[in-house]
């Protein structure tokens, strides 16, 4: 870290609106983590009119990027994990300034196990794995092998991220290096897909079998976040009610697909209710 720049930067940047300042400087050549820059400063501020403001600075031959981020938007990013690099920056960067211990609270809440963050992220990641697995299965049945390969590759990636999250760690951009140390069996499946000399369709079919077992064995456990929400009341839930539940605000995941699969596995019960359009299908926990 350029100490001279940091001292001057902090002196000039900190005012009543700044909650935290984080410094990120990759030490292992991962410049893509911060878009090819040498250093990144993340400044969390409250009540900004813009969600994000960016400046690119050249200082002593170093390319430095400064990002100001609205605090509410930043919290939304962290809670819903939709920007994985932001999550890495927030959790692994060096905290240079932290008024009222804001960033410490964010990190403590993130790493508390089990936590709402943790169980929701597992549920969301599982649905993404499920979606790509089912796509791969369908493409194979249609003999669209290259599309099946692409979907299977994506399914494996989400499976790897899921294993990392379940281990209480944060999925990084180098997720395969992470998962090779956490669950080598998933890493081995990844190698089987991309490196063996078997016919491509055979490789995909092998992984589909492994994925099928994982789907069956992990569906209830990975869906615990959704099931616990649905246990909050005895009345059945409509899809629309669940989609607009506060715990799912801003979260993008395949809720409808998950509800259908949970129902087919008898983990949810379908309830048919008459309404002005005919018969509506609702769901309740068995």
TrEMBL record:
InterPro entries: NT_sf, NTF-like, YgxA-like_substrate-bd, YgxA_HTH. It holds the Pfam family HTH_52. The keyword Transferase applies. Residues 122-218 form the YgxA-like substrate binding domain. Keywords: Transferase. Residues 225-274 form the YgxA-like helix-turn-helix domain. The keyword DNA damage does not apply. It comes from the Bacteria. One of its GO terms (molecular function) is transferase activity. Residues 16-115 form the Nucleotidyltransferase-like domain. This is Nucleotidyltransferase-like. It comes from Aneurinibacillus migulanus.
